[in-house]
Amino acid sequence: MGKQKKYLILMLAMLMSVSMLLAGCGGNAGPDPQEEVNTEENQDDSRTAESVSGYNIMEGFEELANDDGSIKYLYFNDFMMVMPGSGKWSCEPAEDGQSVTFYLDSAKDGGYGGRLVTIAAFDINDDSYKNLPSYSVAGTGSSTNMRFVAEFPTDVQWNGEDPEQDADYRDLSDYVHKIGEGAVNSPLTTGDSSPEPQAD
Predict the structure, then answer these.
(1) Rounded to whole angstroms, how far apart are CA atoms 45 and 151?
(2) pTM here?
(3) Total Cβ atoms within 10 A of residue 123
(4) Strand, helix or coil for residue 70
(5) C-alpha–C-alpha distance, residues 31 and 4, integer Å
(6) Cα(122)–Cα(70) distance, rounded to whole angstroms?
(7) 74 burial class (0-12, 13-18, 19+ CB within 10 angstroms)?
(8) 138 CB-near residues (< 8 Å, 6+ apart)
(9) pLDDT single digits (tens) 70-127
(10) Neighbours of 161 (CB within 10 A)
């Protein structure tokens, strides 16, 4: 991304940060993720779409923070994710470079999974994401011609008997569930999204 684009996205992120703070006082939390369509137990939450040749979600990755470190700005390939600077979460890209998963560290390290959300890239002509059990379309990047989809876990990913872990997971889960294309408080934004992408 160019410096001008990063500046514009940073300004957008700052506006979003203010909106998120106001949302805590009763603002719109954005669209709900799609209803679960597959109730099979122990299902594999991994991505089902075909690999997108040559695309790497981590290309040009950069992590920045605001002055007091309370907000992290994560720049991925054609989108940005805004996360709290709590130090309680981490993210890991998939080996194939097609997705990145965010975790609550204490739950992951404790053997509970800890998965909060996976952001996966789908070719603009690929609608196989509609078969996912729980998802929200996050946005479209016209530079890469990709659709970004937030995949949410449908099984328990944390220790509910641990009060601190339970509170941390629920807070972060509520936060990432605000992801949605066009949502005012969405933590994920694209630099040059198109609301109606053109299919080839």
Answers:
(1) 8
(2) 0.72
(3) 19
(4) coil
(5) 30
(6) 31
(7) buried
(8) 79, 119, 148, 149, 150, 179, 180, 181, 186, 188
(9) 999 999 999 999 999 999 999 999 999 999 999 999 999 999 999 999 999 999 999 9
(10) 7
Type of residue found at 28: N
Pick from 190, 119, 145: nearest CA to 55: 145
Q: Is 197 left (phi over 0), alpha (psi -120 to 50) or beta?
A: beta
Q: Are 37 and 107 in contact (CB under 8 A)?
A: no
Phi and psi at residue 157, in whole multiples of 5°? -120, 15
Tell me if 117 sits within 8 A of 136, measured CB to CB: no
Amino acid type, 140: T
pLDDT digits (tens, 9 = 90+) for 24-45: 433 334 444 443 333 333 334 3
User: How distant, in Å, are the alpha carbons of 48, 77, 116, 143, 192 from that of 197?
Assistant: 21, 17, 27, 11, 11
Query: How far is the CA of 189 from the CAs of 106, 121, 156, 169, 183, in angstroms?
Result: 27, 14, 27, 22, 9
Selection from 69, 163, 154 nearest residue 115 by Cα? 154
